[in-house]
Amino acid sequence: MTAVLWAGLAGPVPAVAGAAGVALRSRAEAPRARLVRAGGSSRTPKAPLGGGPRGPRRLYEQARRAWDRPLTAYYLILGSSLLVTVLGLVMVYSASMIQALEYSLPASYFFRKQFVAALIGAGLLLLASRMPVKLHRALSYPLLLAAVFLMVLVQVPGIGHAVNGNQNWIYLGGPFQLQPSEFGKLALILWGADLLARKQERRLLTQWKHLLVPLVPVAFLLLGLIMLGGDMGTAIILTAVLFGLLWLAGAPTRLFAGVLGIAVLVGLLLIRTNENRMSRLACIGATDLGPKGECWQAVHGIYALASGGWFGSGLGASVEKWGQLPEPHTDFIFAVAGEELGLAGTLSVLALFAALGYAGIRVAGRTEDPFVRYAAGGVTTWITAQAVVNIGAVLGLLPIAGVPLPLFSYGGSALLPTMFAVGLLIAFARQDPAAKAALATRRPGVRWKSMRRRVKKRPSGER
Predict the structure, then answer these.
(1) In the prediction, which pLDDT does 443 show?
(2) Among 166, 167, 247, 369, which one has the highest count of C-beta atoms within 10 angstroms of its own C-beta?
(3) The pLDDT of residue 454 is above 90
(4) How many CB atoms lie within 10 A of CB 392?
């Protein structure tokens, strides 16, 4: 009986096994079929090498490709400068309310003046960003002559006025006044870039006399006019611009070190002969007000930063601006920002300036036009050096130089040329051939034409 059963089952077994194998294969191939129908690959995905996750690596590659795009510098300059300006308007309003009320003025008095200056500066930024490079070079000499003329007028009795001990202002009538030395920075950059570019085209920069003359004598003329008014801070920034231009021009190390040594000796002499400057130098890192209150501003700036914490006390809730901190809306506005916005706010401001500086260096490094390289490098040196000097003074790491934070502090005379300089960087970023091509594809007209080319022509009888 067992044999009969075994003989009867012996035949159908292969068929059952074959059916089971077909069923198993169909189940195994179902996902592959779905992948093929969906447009995917029929191959089984392999695990990444090393067993690590692919997500972070993919994100890194995408970020790197986005960072290397032609318009990265363009958007960094435009976005960071506008964000710093808008945030500066907010902080000017918050930091200046109490001081305006002390002068029996409306609480929004300083904010309204800064807002008008920002609107005019936005127009200058747009104008500079649309001007061709040839026009920028043509304006360099008239701008330099106008800056020197105005800086000479500052020293004429009855025309120039002193503010906080520095005679570097010209009153234009009413509440408006002008500081010509701020425009002198922009004039030196444009004129120096044009001068060095023309000499490089003639291959004259290999000779030290052509490298220094007339760039250094004209810079010393501007420095002398500034120092006649006692403005040491602006002189430091102008010196940094001069060294930036010499560095970009490829000045030899010995020549560069010699000019730097002379500048340091002159600076030390000017500091030693002035009691106010010596007291500012002694307040670096101070935590005590001093016997006569010499370090009052520096110490209260540290107090403001320390009381901000991680996220600050909130907009308008600063305590130090209630008469304790001098110049809360100009030189020490960064301290008020630290108190009201905290560490997160101050790091955000630093990140925006870092992005602007990186974009400027990128524009200067990727261009083949010598004028664009010198001008972009000079503007980047100006903005970053002034930001470092201002923030370093607020942090107690540098002496208080009395320079505003670019695009952030109150002051129309400082805001207008700085926004024009940012417009220069935007114009130079647009001059890159790859950036030109990328911007051309984003114009509405080009898109419409490209889309119209893709539409097939219909037969004449078809409606």
Answers:
(1) 63
(2) 166
(3) no
(4) 15
Q: Is 309 left (phi over 0), alpha (psi -120 to 50) or beta?
A: left
| C-alpha distances in Å from residue 350, one per residue of 2, 73, 83, 84, 314 | 91, 17, 12, 10, 19
Q: Residue 273: how many CB atoms within 10 A of its CB? A: 9
Give the span between the Cα atoms of 364 and 371, in whole angstroms. Answer: 10
Residues 6 or more apart in contact with residue 117 via CB below 8 angstroms = 411, 412, 415, 416
Locate tokens 């016997």: which residue?
291
For 171, the token pair is 């009153």
Listed range (53-57, 86-90, 183-187, 316-320) with the worst mean pLDDT = 53-57
Task: Look at the alpha carbons of 367, 368, 369, 370 in this order and tell me if their dihedral is positive or negative.
Answer: positive
Helix/strand/coil (H/E/C) assignment for every residue in 235-288: HHHHHHHHHHHHHHCCCCHHHHHHHHHHHHHHHHHHHHCCHHHHHHHHCCCCCC
CB 162 within 8 A of CB 181: no
28 φ/ψ angles, rounded to the nearest 5 degrees: -70, -35
Joined together, the tokens standing for residue 152 give: 């000479």
Helix (H) or strand (E) holding 14: helix 12-37
pLDDT, tens only, 67-93: 778 889 999 999 999 999 999 999 999
Q: Which two tokens stand for residue 337?
A: 């920002």
Contact of 302 with 396, CB cutoff 8 Å: yes
DSSP string, 40-54: --SSPPPPPGGG--S
Least confidently predicted of 83-97, 174-188, 377-391? 174-188
pLDDT of amino acid 180: 94
H-run or E-run covering 207: none
- pLDDT tens, 16-42? 444 444 443 444 444 444 444 444 444
What are the two backbone dihedrals, phi and then psi, of residue 31, each rounded to the nearest 5 degrees? -60, -35
Cis peptide bond upstream of 214, omega within 30: yes
User: Which residue, chain included where needed, has tokens 């107090």?
Assistant: 303
Question: Does pLDDT of 265 surpass 80?
Answer: yes
**For position 347, what pLDDT does the model report?**
97
| 183 close to 414: Cβ distance less than 8 angstroms | no
What is the pLDDT, as a whole number, of residue 445?
53
Q: What's the half-sphere exposure (Cβ side, CA atoms, 13 Å) at 168?
A: 29
Alpha-carbon distance of 387 to 6, in angstroms, equals 95
Mean pLDDT of 264-285: 85
Which element (helix H / strand E) includes 169? strand 166-173
| Contact between 313 and 40 (Cβ < 8 Å) | no
